[in-house]
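Proteins fold reproducibly. Look at a concrete instance:
___
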Amino acid sequence: MALRSFSHSSNVLARRPVTVIALAQLLGTSLWFSANSAFDELARAWDVSAAEIGWLTGAVQGGFILGTLTLALTGLADRFRASHLFVIFAIIGALCNALFAWTAQGLADGLVWRFLVGLSLAGIYPVGMKLVVSFAPERTGQALAQLVAMLTLGTALPHGLKELGAQLPWQAVISASSLLALVGAALIFRLGDGPHLPTRPASGGEHLRVFDAFRVARFRAAAWGYFGHMWELYAFWTVVPLLIAGSVLAGETPGVGVSGMAFGVIGAGALGCLIGGALSHRVGSAAVALSMLALSCVCAVTFALFWRSLPPLGLGALLLVWGAAVVADSPQFSALAAKACPPTIVGASLAIMNAIGFAITVVSIGLVTALFERVGLDAAWLLVPGPLLGLLGYALTRKRAC
């Protein structure tokens, strides 16, 4: 009976590999913003400001950058089985996240543990993208949309856990993310790698070819759009609870707190990704990516102009649309980049693009959280330049290539 059950579950994994990878991504990336779910509690317990709490997110981004650069420049992303990398890094990330919850006594050691969590996420997010390509190279846009949808839900999940466990200690809520990451590791361990993009043997200097991808105009154009999108995305996700708490939305919804509303706004991005993925099959990844980037820019400008005057219903609707659009372009830019670069270095190329993109997020998160303390919700203006530059960079690069 046990053998039959094991065989049946293995067959399910084999039939729906992209769904399994997406679910594992959801569980693994719940580590990313787990500390943000305890924003208020940490500020009180450690006697730190909102900007200093924002450093915790910056530390995760910094660790992620170092991790993705290491994977790309050493060739590890393409030399070892992606499933093995995912499992190892998910376990390490879960452990570091739990140690942050139960051993950190202040901001200094908290930053160290969050940095290590970010380092571990480098073996979850870009490696998860490579796993998707290894199973479904013929429908990269749709498959990556499903993957990023789960990343988005994983980002929102700590806020949802806090809302559900409002009476629990913040350490328990953060630890729940560690347990979820371990389940994600188990799923990928059972699934393994896909038949495409097989592991290539190490060879001297081969990893340096990752920079060849930037010689391809279509890759550069996708990277420009991705970088502009990244300026806005993680800074927006970081300040969503602050935007809600500082606006007329706070206390307007009976039975739903700031964490519950933050979960809804960030989680709306999952629906945006899925809709974008479906549309990409009909109109192409480029059209979806640019449309969503433009819509996100419009939402940012609208919020910055009218957050004082919009009624609660209108402001809530705006944030939901913004939350859906702000991430829906991400999988399509990644799909465009994956299709444009040489197949033998797709893992490293995506990793290096991620590293640069997340380096940008460190700057935008730091600036937005610092500006928020000075001007409040008007800090949303700082999110606008990213989408504008992304659209401009993509258009100019593609024009020169034609």
